[in-house]
Amino acid sequence: MGGFRLRQWRKAWPDSLLRLELWLAGAPHPLLAADTVAGLARLAPLFLHLVVNDPQALAPPVHGQLRRAADAGLPLAAETFLVRGWNDEAGLLRELFLGLLRLRVRPYALIRGQWLPPALCVADAAAEGLIRSLRGWISGLAVPQLVDEPLDGTRHIRIPPYVTQLGPQGAEGVNYQGHPFAYPNPPPE
User: Fold this and answer.
1) 23: number of Cβ within 10 Å
2) Which of 42, 51, 148, 154 fits a 20 to 30 Å CA distance from 88?
3) Tens digits of per-residue pLDDT, 70-82?
4) Strand, helix or coil for residue 61
């Protein structure tokens, strides 16, 4: 499955970073078979970029495949597309992201696709609320960046506004629990 082309690419550009995207749906993926993973590991630097949209995609048959890829030294990262009514619940996302982390896959992007039909697109405030329900409550390694993806395909990282005021005296805001904080600037020298 494209292995020959990947080897040609690696020979032509030996120092280039290769990124292979795989969509996981709960069944074993052919590119994560034992012989294929060993071949992919020889193409380093190569990153496996996974698209995983719900915890069901991490069914037991996939566990061994992801562990094998991690054991072979392949860096693994995942993105999730946020879809209203399917995976827009904080408990489900916690389960998914912690499950990925247990399998040595770094969840790095929770994507709010503005190209989705309006009935499936998650509202701004709801998406931000989901990130707030994760950040501070589970391992920071398991919390992806919230990303907006408009119709033009560009991506914009959204960070919940924890800092509410920034001035010469310092920063003020609220933490993940909603408690106020203040960080004064150091005195001038």
Assistant:
1) 10
2) 154
3) 999 999 999 999 9
4) helix
Percent of the chain with pLDDT over 90: 45
CA distance 92 to 56: 10
Outline where the chain has alpha helix (H): 3-12, 34-41, 60-71, 90-102, 124-134
Distance in angstroms (rounded) separating the CA atoms of residues 146 and 121: 14
Locate tokens 């993806």: which residue? 149
Element (H, E) at 184: strand 180-184
Between the alpha carbon of residue 45 and those of residues 73, 75, 86, 161, the distances in Å are: 10, 9, 35, 36
Number of other CB atoms surrounding residue 66 within 10 Å: 25
Q: What is the pTM of this model?
A: 0.81
Task: Write down all domains in the chain, each with its CATH number in brackets.
Answer: 3-158 (3.20.20.70), 162-189 (no CATH)
Residues 154, 125: Cα–Cα separation, whole Å: 20
Of 122, 51, 117, give the one whose Cα is nearest residue 82. Answer: 122
3-state class (DSSP) for residue 127: helix
